[in-house]
């Protein structure tokens, strides 16, 4: 069902809110219905039957967890920055539920609680200069370790009660605020906020690349969102990869 614009505390004006009992994945559903909608929208499902994360990995969704996708205008060159907009918005929404202790942001698209994965973000480009921002949060339960891909961070569930619809009512306004900051002043404010909460900043990390692994001290993120490493051969910027546990 769609909620009228503005209903609910702080819901961003002009953004449609769609809640489904079930779908294959909110990303696929958002892509399916995007052609018939001109404005931004969020679609949330209480159950996903075929959820997925980055690199085609499956995203397990126990009952009570959060799965939603937002669709927004974004020039193709700036679309990847929405991963960081979503990350800082997610952290804000989670802080509103449980406080900030233990929350951190892992490059490029995870939110951690006590060093374990609490939430993930997936971006997909859409026709017409739009981007779909998929968000999954372990609100009620975390998948067991034997169900996770090899090398994945252990997962953790939120340690405070929160319903999926209640969480969307926190996330959508937070995303709108940070999206507004990006549009008004570029990436600088979002980048600074992300780095303020970055996991392992200043530590030595290993990053899995499409071909091999690179190691170095994590210096932060560049103005285009690339991970900046100080390696034995000098500074290196990584645009795509996975920071290993």
From TrEMBL:
Q: Could you give a GO molecular-function term held by this entry?
A: biotin--[biotin carboxyl-carrier protein] ligase activity
The entry's keywords: Biotin, Ligase
**EC number, as in UniProt:** 6.3.4.15
Q: Which Gene3D superfamilies did the record assign? A: 2.30.30.100, Bira Bifunctional Protein, Domain 2 (3.30.930.10)
Q: Which domain of life is it from?
A: Bacteria
SUPFAM superfamilies tied to this protein:
Class II aaRS and biotin synthetases (SSF55681)
PROSITE patterns in UniProt: BPL_LPL_CATALYTIC
The record's section on PANTHER family has: BIOTIN PROTEIN LIGASE, BIOTIN--PROTEIN LIGASE
Name the UniProt record assigns to this protein: biotin--[biotin carboxyl-carrier protein] ligase
Lineage at the top is: Bacteria, Pseudomonadati, Pseudomonadota, Alphaproteobacteria, Rhodobacterales
């Amino acid at each position: 069902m769609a909620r009228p614009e503005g209903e609910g505390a702080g819901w961003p004006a002009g953004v449609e809110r769609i809640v489904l009992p079930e779908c294959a994945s909110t990303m696929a559903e958002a892509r399916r219905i995007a052609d018939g909608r001109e404005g931004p929208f969020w679609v949330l499902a209480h159950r996903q039957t075929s959820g997925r994360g980055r690199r085609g990995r499956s995203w397990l969704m126990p009952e009570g967890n959060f799965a939603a996708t937002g669709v927004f205008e974004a020039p193709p060159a700036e679309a990847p920055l929405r991963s960081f907009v979503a990350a800082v918005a997610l952290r804000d929404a989670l802080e509103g539920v449980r406080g900030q202790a233990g929350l951190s942001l892992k490059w490029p698209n995870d939110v951690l609680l006590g060093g374990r994965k609490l939430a993930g973000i997936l971006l997909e480009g859409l026709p017409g200069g739009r981007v779909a921002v998929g968000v999954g949060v372990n609100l009620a339960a975390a998948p067991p370790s034997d169900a996770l891909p090899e090398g994945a961070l252990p997962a953790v569930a939120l340690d405070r009660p929160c319903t999926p619809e209640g969480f969307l009512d926190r996330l959508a306004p937070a995303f709108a605020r940070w999206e507004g900051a990006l549009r008004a002043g570029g990436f600088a404010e979002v980048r600074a906020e992300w780095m303020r909460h970055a996991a392992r900043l200043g530590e030595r990390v290993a990053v899995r690349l499409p071909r091999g692994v690179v190691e170095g001290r994590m210096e932060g993120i560049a103005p285009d969102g690339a991970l900046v490493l100080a390696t034995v051969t000098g500074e290196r910027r990584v645009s795509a990869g996975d920071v290993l546990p």
